[in-house]
Design goal:
Radius of gyration: 19 Å
Number of strands: 7
Largest sheet: 7 strands, parallel
Order of helices and strands: HEHEHEHEHEHEHEHH
CATH topology: Rossmann fold
Structural class: alpha/beta
Helix content: 40-55%
CATH class: Alpha Beta
CATH superfamily: NAD(P)-binding Rossmann-like Domain
Number of helices: 9
Strand content: 5-15%
CATH architecture: 3-Layer(aba) Sandwich
Number of domains: 1
Length: 271
């Protein structure tokens, strides 16, 4: 006898949410890696307002204390995420103090606007260590416990700079393109094991990183607007959370163009 529910199951796979919607942040344990400024700091503040238990990590402990503002649900774990040796210790401390981790959001990033001929290889190595390699350090510690429980989520903050080769992002852009690719691989690997994976692609957000830019930044958003878009996307069970739509859809359209047209438009945008 055939299962009468198979059409419903097929429709859910085709049109349903890619992740489990987060209905409430109450008592959710969220670890923000890179929470001392920008989007990470804004996420911390909003999540604490929503009654989540928030672990704040970054290198600057004093800045983290200022963001936590003595909130009872805030736990500060200051460390350098690019230092592999520190990850296991920090992860063990968080588990010991909070029991489990429901969601880890990788926010840490380094950015330097530069053309290809301006790149210094040592600076490039530091950027790649922070933007990409630190995530592998974290995953090695975090995933075993989540896989054992078959519960949890990982969010990578990439960027629309990873969609295509934008000028002035000679190291930052490739690092974010790698995160987009990694998030897709992680979803294929981890979703069948009941873990959620989120790919976050912001456009321009007013942060200490983008303050280095000397060019016009279209559709510039505040960190608070970015944090709200991210949380709404997670509550809606989305895989890719990209914003603002009027800018990100334009870049997605550029991705579909032949290289000749794409390069022509990018050259005009950069001039």
């Amino acid at each position: 006898m055939h299962n009468v529910n198979w059409p419903t199951k097929v429709l859910r796979k085709l049109f349903g949410t890619l992740n489990q919607p987060i209905e409430s942040w109450h008592n959710k344990t969220v670890w923000l890696v890179g929470a001392s400024s920008g989007i990470g700091a804004a996420l911390a503040r909003q999540l604490l307002t929503l009654d989540a238990k928030v672990v704040l990590s970054a290198r600057r402990a004093e800045q983290l204390r200022h963001i936590a503002n003595d909130h009872p649900n805030a736990l500060i774990k200051a460390f350098d995420a690019s230092d592999k040796a520190l990850w296991s210790e920090m992860h063990s401390q968080v588990l010991q103090e909070l029991g489990q981790i429901d969601l880890v959001i990788f926010c840490a990033a380094k950015y330097q606007p530069e053309r290809t001929w301006e790149v210094d290889s040592l600076d490039a190595q530091e950027t790649l260590n922070i933007n990409l390699l630190s995530i592998y350090h974290g995953l090695q510690c975090i995933l075993p416990d989540m896989l054992k429980r078959r519960q949890g989520g990982i969010a990578l903050i990439a960027s629309v700079a990873g969609y295509l080769g934008l000028p002035n992002a000679s190291v930052y852009g490739p690092s974010k393109a790698a995160l987009i690719n990694l998030a897709e691989i992680m979803y294929a690997d981890l979703h069948p094991k009941d873990l959620d994976v989120y790919l976050i692609n912001p456009g321009f957000v007013s942060t200490p990183l983008t303050a280095k830019n000397t060019f016009f930044m279209p559709a510039l958003q505040t960190p608070e607007q970015a944090a709200q878009a991210i949380l709404l996307g997670m509550q809606g069970g989305k895989f890719e959370i990209h914003f603002p739509k009027r800018f990100t859809y334009f870049l997605k359209l550029l991705q579909c163009l032949p290289y000749r047209l794409r390069f022509l438009l990018l050259r005009r945008l950069a001039s």
